[in-house]
Amino acid sequence: FEKLVRPAAPADGAGPQDGGGAVVKAVASGRPPPPARELSVEETRTLLEGMRVAIVGLAFQKALDNVRSRDWGALKKRAGIAKLLSYAWKSPLKASGFAIDAYSFPRILAAVRSHASAPGIR
């Protein structure tokens, strides 16, 4: 996780501003988004549990403390935490059939929201 916590690219255009360029390129390509993935209640539980397990581990918590302790502004800290979460959640998201792209996060929220009233889903 420490490799993910580094200063942002220069604002003068000397590098991709999204931390890697992949998401921006996917959106800018004009390709239609892939079909939405629907989850069963059990698949939703499995996804949420995988996401929870990924962030309660010692390595993630140490990296999170590292970001929090830095003398960064709120926006830069938020970006650092978002990067940590994206790294930690990559495996559970892929295991649930979600692509790692600009379209997935809203789709994950919709999939979880569709089962919000089911027991064990929050």
Strand content: under 5%
Query: Strand tally, please?
Result: 0
Class based on secondary structure composition and strand pairing: mainly alpha
Shape: globular
| Order of helix and strand elements from N to C terminus | HHHHH
CA(first)-CA(last) distance = 27 Å
The value of Rg in angstroms is: 16 Å
Helix and strand topology:
Layout: H1 22-28, H2 41-56, H3 58-69, H4 74-95, H5 104-113
Helix pairs in contact: 2-4, 3-4
Kindly list the characteristics that best describe this protein.
about 120 residues, about 55% helix, mainly alpha, single chain
Short description:
The protein has 122 residues and is an all-alpha fold.
Can you describe this structure?
It is a single chain. By secondary structure, the chain is mainly alpha-helical. It has a domain at 41-114. It is built from 5 helices and no strands. The chain starts with 21 loop residues before the first helix and ends in a 9-residue tail after the last helix. Residues 7-26 have low confidence and may be disordered.
